[in-house]
Amino acid sequence: MRMVKALMDNPTLYLEKYLHEVIPAVMTCIVSRQLCLRPDVDNHWALRDFAARLIAQICKNFSTTTNNIQSRITKTFTKSWVDEKTPWTTRYGSIAGLAELGPDVIKTLILPRLQVEGERVRSVLEGPVVSNIDKIGADHVQSLLLVREAAPPPPPLQPPL
């Protein structure tokens, strides 16, 4: 993912011809069920966050009305998020990816589902003992939703005197 970031930041490269190879790799790092051998110990959450920021940058730089990159990516994230059988790791990545796409996506897609997702998280955290991985995943989803979506916006910056 760092290599993709470096390629994107290089102004001398024309990456549009290679997006069909780059986007699947980045999306895999966001929504894949398992990215490491020990998901209960290894910090794959940071990789998902970084890849979500990358996919948002790709959308910002390359999405047009012709190629519909952002709408296709948004559809992928939404489809994997609303599926009841989606594992918590994929759910987290989908929400992180949607949140990185900007305030309009947050307002239209994430905020209306906060209550449903909150109830789903609560049922895992307060319900009968489930797998440790599910509990960790639900906790990360809860933190993501509380920090990104439910937190009040920061106060406006004051101009220097």
Automatic annotation (TrEMBL):
Pfam assignment, any one: TAF6_C
PANTHER family: TRANSCRIPTION INITIATION FACTOR TFIID SUBUNIT 6
Record domain TAF6 C-terminal HEAT repeat: where: 1-115
GO cellular component: SAGA complex; SLIK (SAGA-like) complex; transcription factor TFIID complex
GO molecular function: RNA polymerase II general transcription initiation factor activity; transcription coactivator activity
GO BP annotation list: RNA polymerase II preinitiation complex assembly
UniProt family annotation: Belongs to the TAF6 family.
InterPro entries reported in the protein's UniProt record: ARM-type_fold, TAF6, TAF6_C, TAF6_C_sf
Subcellular location: Nucleus
Keywords recorded for this protein, A-Z: Nucleus, Transcription, Transcription regulation
This protein's record includes keyword Transcription regulation: yes
Name of this chain's protein: Transcription initiation factor TFIID subunit 6-like
Matching CDD domains: TAF6C
Protein's organism: Notechis scutatus
